[in-house]
Design goal:
Blueprint (H helix, E strand, L loop, with lengths): L2 H12 L3 H20 L4 E3 L3 E8 L2 E5 L2 E8 L2 E8 L1 H8 L8
């Protein structure tokens, strides 16, 4: 699903025009990104938690030339932990439907 698909779906379900829905969706995503960039975590009840974690620097190797080690620098990454209800819903899915 793309952002556009989400906008169309919400507009159809609510009766709000797509341009307003698109603005609301974009503002929501912009605010989530801004909060993450400021180091805060985003907790959406029944959905999940987004937060910034620091991944430590480590040694890496080129699989084609294993003799050369490269230092991969420390960096910030976004982590997502699914909420209880989302996790339970996913666990009930039939895995054969996704192959």
């Amino acid at each position: 699903m793309t952002k556009r698909d989400l906008v169309v779906k919400i507009a159809n379900e609510t009766g709000i025009i797509q341009t307003k829905v698109a603005d609301i969706v974009q503002l929501t995503l912009d605010n989530i990104a801004a909060e993450l960039m400021s180091g805060k975590k985003i907790e959406l009840r029944n959905f999940g938690v987004f937060e910034i974690k620091i991944r430590k620097s480590r040694k890496g190797r080129n699989p084609r030339n294993t003799k050369n080690e490269v230092i991969i620098p420390e960096r910030a990454v976004i982590k997502f932990r699914a909420g209880k209800e989302l996790k339970e819903a996913v666990e009930k899915l039939n895995t054969a439907d996704f192959r």
